[in-house]
Amino acid sequence: MAKDEADSDLPSHDQAKEFYAKYDPKEVLGRGVSSVVRRCTEKETGKEYAVKIIDISGEKQENYIAEQTKRDTFREMNILRMCSGHPYIIGFHDSFETPTFIFLVFELCKHGELFDYLTQVVSLSEKRTRVIMKQLFDVVEFIHSKNIVHRDLKPENILLDDNLNIKVSDFGFAVVLEDGEELTELCGTPGYLAPEVLSVSMYDDVPGYGREVDIWACGVIMYTLLSGAPPFWHRKQMQMLRMIMHGTYAFGSPEWDDISQAPKDLISKLLVLDPKKRLTATEALNHPFFKRELAPEKQFFARRTFRAGIICVRFFYRLKYFYYNPPPISKEVIQTNPYSVKPLRKLLDNCAFRMYGHWVKKAENQNRAALFEHAPREEWLDLGYS
Ligand SMILES: Nc1ncnc2c1ncn2[C@@H]1O[C@H](COP(=O)(O)OP(=O)(O)OP(=O)(O)O)[C@@H](O)[C@H]1O
């Protein structure tokens, strides 16, 4: 990209003297509705950060929306300060305000979003899911203890640091609950919305919602990490919202066949329609999924150990034999059950993901709602694959 074009959305030096005195802005990392996130370096230390530059000038949007953006940003800054120092929440380093822009300087997460990581790997192992979900519940337990509700937990808002630890970001919808306060605003991302958020926007005589919406979102995230597809999804958004309202989801085959009972049990205790019956973050952290199974005390039995050794060696040689002499794949198997053949299974899965875009690569100007679009891609239709 030409330098002029790349820098075209940067505020001028006159508009942001204080920021430019301390930081050098670099390439764009991501864009929001009214903001651009760039890598930047701190002049004094040479350390790298990410700066979110929020336009509050009113030039790109109506004045009243710019005012709202400004108010929301101050609320977000206040909440970020309340969360400072938590190991799995994005570090908030610095801020600057001018009449036209607000600059928020964050720690830099070079590995980007959990969403992009999932795009590459499609689904995660139980072990990796355990690490990520444990960190996520640590965050939720912490923010809920401070009466903060995030309201937009999803893989796009979970960044990964250099050690692939999570950093929960984007507290743009987060609020601090007053004692006994119930929320009524419809906000969040469709696939992750809890049923009570939908109810409150549809009916007059229902109670508002509270912190339990974050637990529901954790259930959706955990399901998605393990299977590579969201639990509530339909080509037509109204149908998808109806599925959420009724709590209709399944641990379908074959994605869930090899997944053990503990994570399924935990998910089923998170995706509970009645928010009062949903686990809390602390209860989720005490679920058996997060408890390592302790091996029984080991005793040494010479004969048994010797026999086990022989079996292992035999097994190894059989495995080696099959590896170098794989059984022929018959035409019948390919016709009747192609999914049972591992290389074909991989190919089919890849095609399905390409065609239906459960995981879609983020591109310039791509709408994130595409994650839930189940339509074949244009070029496939041209090829007559529809
Ligand atoms: N600290 C960071 N390190 C690396 N990349 C980041 C960081 N913060 C944000 N990004 C990238 O920038 C993108 C947009 O950031 P962010 O999620 O804060 O904006 P947004 O909330 O989507 O914006 P808006 O609320 O204005 O629509 C992120 O999705 C991510 O890819």
Automatic annotation (TrEMBL):
EC number per UniProt: 2.7.11.19
One Gene Ontology biological process: glycogen metabolic process
InterPro entries in the cross-refs: Kinase-like_dom_sf (IPR011009), Phosph_kin_gamma (IPR002291), Prot_kinase_dom (IPR000719), Protein_kinase_ATP_BS (IPR017441), Ser/Thr_kinase_AS (IPR008271)
Ranges of residues in domain Protein kinase: 23-290
Residues reported in the UniProt entry to bind ATP: K52
Record field: catalytic activity: 2 ATP + phosphorylase b = 2 ADP + phosphorylase a
Keywords from the named record: ATP-binding, Calmodulin-binding, Carbohydrate metabolism, Glycogen metabolism, Kinase, Nucleotide-binding, Serine/threonine-protein kinase, Transferase
Keyword Kinase among UniProt keywords: yes
Coiled coil: none
Cellular component GO terms, alphabetical: phosphorylase kinase complex
Gene3D superfamilies: Phosphorylase Kinase, domain 1, Transferase(Phosphotransferase) domain 1
One Gene Ontology term of the molecular function aspect: ATP binding
Enzyme class: transferase
PANTHER family linked: SERINE/THREONINE-PROTEIN KINASE
Similarity remark: Belongs to the protein kinase superfamily.
Summary of subunit composition and partner proteins: Hexadecamer of 4 heterotetramers, each composed of alpha, beta, gamma, and delta subunits. Alpha (PHKA1 or PHKA2) and beta (PHKB) are regulatory subunits, gamma (PHKG1 or PHKG2) is the catalytic subunit, and delta is calmodulin.
Protein name per UniProt: phosphorylase kinase
Organism listed in the record: Potamilus streckersoni
